[in-house]
Amino acid sequence: MTENERDQAEPDGTENSALADNLEAACEALLFVSDEPVSAAALARILAAEPSAVDTALSGLATRLQEEERGIQLREVAGGWRLYSHPAFHEVIERYVLSWDTRALSQAALEALAVIAYHQPCTRQIVNGVRGVNSEGVIASLVDKGLVREAGRDNAPGAAILYATTRTFLEKFGLKSLKDLPPLADFAPDQASREFIQARLSAAGVDSETAASGAEQLAEWAEGDDDPELID
User: What is the CATH number of domain 3-96?
Assistant: First the structure.
């Protein structure tokens, strides 16, 4: 074996040593080139480092970026870590480039997304009933944007499509899980509102038992008695 072949077959470990010495910087570099959240376990595999060391490095990096008020911040979202621009500079960034964000969603799309997020998995009929208008177009738009997906079929006659939010939804709205959705306790509907919701659901073609259950469940979620679950 030549000296060159021996050098290729037996790395001297300098690279791994350098990564170990500056694990925070290595994580930062990898996250910088990623367009989606990366888990600590995935980073540990790439860096051939101990997961606990990577966790410590990520936490340290997030704290340092926050304390130094840097232009980018590190946040844990959707089961991984991702770099975000500092909120203080969002206005400047908006002037520099028009990027996709929640402002691109119409009021109708935001309403439909809210119903799905808090009542998932649910059918288009449910969304129509709560909003009081046909939501087929806005739901299709949410699916195209990757915020909503088909999550199976309803067991009721007709087997309507069920809709649920996606991990992209969590990522775009900066949520670790659906349990981080803003609480609706301050907006819990009174009895009259529940009856109004039930009437809308019934008018949308939802059977009375399902309509009543839907109205009650919306109220329970608003009062914090239950949490919707994200379906993989």
Answer: 1.10.10.10
